[in-house]
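Data card: per-record layout.
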Amino acid sequence: PDPPPGGNPAPNPASSPDADKILEAIHQQGNAVRDLKSKKAAKDEITSAVQLLLKLKSDYKALTGKDAPPGGKAPSSEPVKTMPDTSVTPEQLETKIKEQGDKVRSAKGSGASKDEIQSLVNDLLKLKADYKTLTGNDPPGAPQQSSKQKKKEKKAPAPKVEAGVTRLGIEAKKFEDLPNWYSQVITKSEMIEYYDVSGCYILRPWSFFIWEVIQKWFDAGIKELGVENCYFPMFVSNSALEKRKKYRLRLCVDTTA
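The structure for this 257-residue chain is written out next.
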């Protein structure tokens, strides 16, 4: 664009002293309106305060050509991002992070003031941010996502059912969602049904036939070795365990099944 007359840039009315004064007045008047509403003042008093607030906003727009920012205060500019000192190696930063972490734990253990602890934590966070900026990775020892969080992220969304399309087939893909694919295979093939007790399943005729075939083959093999079959209870009651406390360590019974 062509330069303004005289060679000097035109002043920005939004940054003029008068505009700043109006913004400050808008901020104070807004607080006054909120205060009146919280105190449940008379309707006429609140209306008068609101009208004054609207007039201040109108004056600001007439002066700057822009609406006043919410709250009457101009949004603060983003802080300048400082780059970490490139002369420091990742190994040196790791050492500083460890030392700063020890200081934070020591301050918490000695009952230091909240402000002192927060100051130490802020320094620790800055060191970790510098490490990540320098290396692109989180520092060693940083908290990792729990297995539940990872499973939640990996869990594929339920497929959308289109009109006229049945859900008799396998909807999940083996190489994209193996657990869901396997669950659909054994349930939609009518081999297994889920039971209301966690960890227990109902073996339907097809799957029980497969189990019988495996059992016969395995039984014949171990009989040739002279093994004799026997049955043990699947579940052990709490009262039975209490009667035989001294045998728990020797039996190593898994009561969580």
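Known properties of this structure: The first helix runs from residue 17 to 38. The CA atoms of residues 46 and 120 lie 46 Å apart.

See the next section for split statistics.
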